[in-house]
Amino acid sequence: MVLNYYYDLMSQPCRALYIFLKMTGIPYEPKEVALRKLEHMTDEYGQLNPFRKVPVIDDSGFVLTESVAILTYLCEKHKKYDWYPKELKDRARVDEYNNWQHANLRLNGSTLFLSKIIIPGMTGKPPNENELEKWRNKWEESTGHLENVWLKRSPYVAGGHITISDLLGVCEMMQPISAGYDFDAKKFPRVQEWMERVKKETQPHFDQA
């Protein structure tokens, strides 16, 4: 049976998983869930994922939520060890970044995007400038960690070649940028070069996502 992939490309993890599926050629059946139309809040979708989030996969009746779990599962099942290394220490580097990202780059960038775009769009009120400043500073702090920790020791966030961590990371970086925040390439040159490398290696799927 074909893998069913429930997603909305408005979601950063959904974009990362979309790029991964396209790059690896793993066959799947797209099942778009329109977040703007609140399709994730329906009873039907709630039965699939009680947390009412995307992405979700249904692999012949095996339903899995959470993007990192999905990516690592698919890498193991389809033996995509170039994306999720089999060697213990190399894999640990990927896991290390993925665990760091949730409470840092993803949290800060997502909240910045939420504060500037989503909440004002839902309430009809202008963004809270104090909140924007707070979360912009936190996002830049996380970007600084990318620059001075993860990308200082290797050209990709988890080693010498592209992995699922880079897909997750670059999609998170693009979220605030898409909201109109200027990215200071002079301040974060390693991050700029890394984003360009990942984009180039994942075309045309990166632009499609």
Automatic annotation (TrEMBL):
Can you state which reaction this protein catalyses?
Answer: RX + glutathione = an S-substituted glutathione + a halide anion + H(+)
What are the BP-aspect GO terms?
Answer: glutathione metabolic process
State whether keyword DNA-binding applies: no
Question: GST N-terminal domain: which residues?
Answer: 1-82
Its chief place of residence is cytoplasm
Supply the PROSITE patterns for this chain: GST_CTER, GST_NTER
Compartments, record wording: Cytoplasm
Q: Which UniProt keywords apply?
A: Cytoplasm, Transferase
Where would I find the GST C-terminal domain in this sequence? 87-209
Q: Which InterPro entries match?
A: Glutathione-S-Trfase_C-like, Glutathione-S-Trfase_C_sf, Glutathione_S-Trfase, Glutathione_S-Trfase_N, GST_C, GST_C_Theta, GST_N_Theta, GST_Theta
Instruction: Show the GO MF annotations.
Output: glutathione transferase activity
The UniProt entry's GO CC annotations, sorted and at most eight, read: cytoplasm
Pfam families, per database record = GST_C (PF00043), GST_N (PF02798)
**Similarity comment: family membership:** Belongs to the GST superfamily. Theta family.
The name this protein carries in UniProt is Uncharacterized protein
Origin species, per record, is: Adineta ricciae (Rotifer)
Q: What is the lineage of its organism?
A: Eukaryota, Metazoa, Spiralia, Gnathifera, Rotifera
